[in-house]
Amino acid sequence: MTAPQRLTDRKREAIIQAAISEFRANGFDITSMDRIAATAGVSKRTVYNHFPSKEELFAEILGQLWARISTEQSLAYQPEQPLRDQLRQILLAKLQLMADENFLNLARVAIAATIHSPERAQNMVARMREREESVTVWIRAAQIDGRLKPVDPEFATHQVQGLLKAFAFWPQISMGQPTLDSATQSTVVEAALDMFLACYQL
């Protein structure tokens, strides 16, 4: 990679970080490309060279959020392994992602920008569901193997992930509570496993 390309990449990242900061502070509608340029320390022309519109810049921020979600540990179902051990690994990976401050910052921006726009909210929910498919796939495989009851896999996925988010996502997003330490993460996961397996394990 050449030096000019690295400079371009740095400017692009500065624009994205400035946009995250401005969207968080002022919301999507009030934030202007002028303000983003000033916060990033670049010209307005530079901002538009990278992102033709505020909507495309916001889409890039959402894209980074989805990319972080999609890199979560996704483990394939293992017929010979205990269900609890497998699901524990999946849920701990999710909690570790939720404890990442960069992820939480992106999530706050996305949620704040969708509150006043049903269209954005619908798109966000749809994409979040796509990225949470790994748990659904695992549940479905365990059902086919005869180890879980025949509940709707998507329903069960929302249930178990809701147990995590009640402690490790929504309090941090909405009330500014600190992220969970490792011991608390383990406690939350084990309690979620107890409830899930007591309800659905055959």
UniProtKB/TrEMBL annotation:
<dbReference type="InterPro" id="IPR009057">
    <property type="entry name" value="Homeodomain-like_sf"/>
</dbReference>
<dbReference type="InterPro" id="IPR050109">
    <property type="entry name" value="HTH-type_TetR-like_transc_reg"/>
</dbReference>
<dbReference type="Pfam" id="PF00440">
    <property type="entry name" value="TetR_N"/>
</dbReference>
<dbReference type="InterPro" id="IPR001647">
    <property type="entry name" value="HTH_TetR"/>
</dbReference>
<dbReference type="GO" id="GO:0000976">
    <property type="term" value="F:transcription cis-regulatory region binding"/>
</dbReference>
<keyword id="KW-0805">Transcription regulation</keyword>
<feature type="domain" description="HTH tetR-type">
    <location>
        <begin position="9"/>
        <end position="69"/>
    </location>
</feature>
<keyword id="KW-0238">DNA-binding</keyword>
<protein>
    <submittedName>
        <fullName>TetR/AcrR family transcriptional regulator</fullName>
    </submittedName>
</protein>
<dbReference type="InterPro" id="IPR036271">
    <property type="entry name" value="Tet_transcr_reg_TetR-rel_C_sf"/>
</dbReference>
<keyword id="KW-0804">Transcription</keyword>
<feature type="DNA-binding region" description="H-T-H motif">
    <location>
        <begin position="32"/>
        <end position="51"/>
    </location>
</feature>
<dbReference type="Pfam" id="PF14246">
    <property type="entry name" value="TetR_C_7"/>
</dbReference>
<dbReference type="InterPro" id="IPR039536">
    <property type="entry name" value="TetR_C_Proteobacteria"/>
</dbReference>
<dbReference type="GO" id="GO:0003700">
    <property type="term" value="F:DNA-binding transcription factor activity"/>
</dbReference>
<dbReference type="InterPro" id="IPR023772">
    <property type="entry name" value="DNA-bd_HTH_TetR-type_CS"/>
</dbReference>
